Amino acid sequence: MSSQTHEFKAEVAALLNLVTNSLYTNSEIFLRELVSNAADALDKARYQALVDSEFAGKELEPHILITIDKQAETLRIEDTGIGMTREEATQNLGTIAHSGTLNYLQEVQRARAAGEVTEASELSLIGQFGVGFYSSFMIADEVVVNTLSGKPGSEAVVWRSKGDGSYEIEPGQRQTRGTSIELKLKSDAKEFLDRWRVEGLIKRYSNYVMHPIRLRVIDEQGEDKDPEPKQINAAAAIWAQSTSELEDSDYQEFYKHLMGGFVLPGDEPFARLHFSADAPIQFHALLFVPGRAPADLFQEDRKALQLYARRVMVMENCDTLLPQYLRFIRGVVDSEDLPLNVSREMLQEHKSLAAIRRQLTRKSLKLLAELADEDAEKYAKLWNEFGAVLKEGLHTDGGQRKELTELLRYRSIADDEGGLISLAAYVEAMGEDQKNIWYIAGPDETALRNSPHLEAVRAKGENVLLMSDPVDEWVLQSLAEYEGKAFRSVTQGELDEPAEDDDADKDDDADKDKDDDADKDDDADKDKREPSPIDPLINMAKVVLGARVRDVRASKRLTESPSCLVDPAGGLSRNMERILRMAQPGTKVGASPRILELNPDHPFVAAASKISEQNKDDPRLPEWVEILHDVAALAEGTVPDPAGAARRFVNVLTQVAADESHGSAD
Ligand SMILES: Nc1ncnc2c1ncn2[C@@H]1O[C@H](COP(=O)(O)OP(=O)(O)OP(=O)(O)O)[C@@H](O)[C@H]1O
């Protein structure tokens, strides 16, 4: 087949434009990207040779050769990897493998224009996303790829492009399996013809690539200075070395390699776990808890642990080695006991992996628990990054519930600075009279801290956990109690009642039974209610508010505010309803009427009650009742009719002003 010219897909053209025009400050990353592609190709070849008996080039020694050609002013990165067929070259080098890459680049460009991105933060983002093959156009006027696939019957192809919107593809001459990528360096990129510059970059970014990387230099006269090119990377399986042989700096270097080459100051890992196991399965593991949550923590194709079998990488991202709720952990697992010549799908199912996973899970949780014990400050940072993910485990992994429960941390009203508290510390600080672990849940922590619902509990000197993470109440459904103390919401039921029926609390379905339960509890409440001095106002309020409230009653939880809205005991909390609606848009869950509680000791409530007692037809009463309802809704940010509420407030203020000017006129 002869030479053919193809246009790049639109997104590649856009990417190239961004790469050549915005990323010049970090142009050196191209070498790491190309070396990492070459290493991937070598891993793939090694694996393919094991599973496909027809695969060509089995005799080739896996390695990467970098050639600096000072005479031709080119840099070549060559591997004896899997190679590409014509179709693969068209597909892989003509389109963008990761859709996220383009979005990321656009974001960098936008943020740069707005002055929000520093060079360092951009570098760390590149490390996370990888700009890939196209980064070569940052430093090259032309890129020529010579490749031969190991697939039986493949023909060599040459792919070339100037990065200007099109590429050419034609038959090639390459005789051995693998790929060479030749870069015709731009005039301002001649620094990459310098041996020390290139060697330094390899040591910095690619030292732990598990294949030998060799460097060869051809001088200005075309003379080969290194007929036997020397290896410039360590290529060591650090995880298989004993901990006593390794220094902290070795781990730091390896972590950097694992994270794509960049770790910003302050983002160093929170903890690491390096161990080898012999029975029942032999394996080495080197795991890190990263110092910062990655951008892809909640994405399907996020980075996971690398799986090696006898030093051969068999899976770049093996997400079966740890449960989902530990998905933020990064590292390497290498086992002698895994079969190499099976498909990835079969490997994922292999029973050894389940055994490794059990050990890794147990040890990882222990590592976190130790960190929490030894360095509360560091653990608090870790919790802020990964707490939301860890909490998922309480729902999904009953076997580790105890360990996970001890890892939970909450902010609480006892600490205005936002410090975290464990459940153990909470229970430890409980007074003799306190029966429950109090919490308040809602979307906004500041609103929670200021909530009127806390008043009586706070006045008694009891602490309340603040739960502003959407998963918090879900977690409580699988927890229900800690050390025999039930979790109780300060916004639900009567505060001095014992904990409600657990079953009703645990059920997260807003089904009919649940509502019936809540009704039952509520009716029971009504029957045994003591008479209150504000009963006249309560009766009046029930008439004025009608179906908008489930009930009106005198409050035992308010000491300062005049009113608040509470959820019935045993029913779904307002926050939970909100979360269910978010999780299942269009569902009918929620907005069920709530209970209005009035504070008998508040002067406004007392005055309103006195008026209702003396003259239940007083024209001010309906508006005052509405105001008490408005104030309660306002405190939690759920006023149904803001304009109406504002009008009512102004009416009262106008009245106060009129009374005042009367008073001063007298
Ligand atoms: N040296 C090589 N040998 C064989 N295939 C290669 C080589 N270099 C690149 N490729 C192919 O081209 C594809 C695109 O490479 P590119 O670097 O753009 O993305 P990637 O490596 O898949 O992603 P990332 O760089 O984000 O990890 C690769 O997935 C691979 O299939």
Automatic annotation (TrEMBL):
Bias kind Acidic residues: ranges: 494-508
Main localisation, per the record? cytoplasm
Enumerate composition-biased segments (Basic and acidic residues): 509-532
Q: In which compartments does the protein localize?
A: Cytoplasm
Describe the function of this protein.
Answer: Molecular chaperone. Has ATPase activity.
Q: Which family does it belong to?
A: Belongs to the heat shock protein 90 family.
What protein is this chain from?
Chaperone protein HtpG
| Gene source species | Enhygromyxa salina
What are the leading ranks of the lineage?
Bacteria, Pseudomonadati, Myxococcota, Polyangia, Nannocystales
Gene symbol of the encoding locus? htpG_1
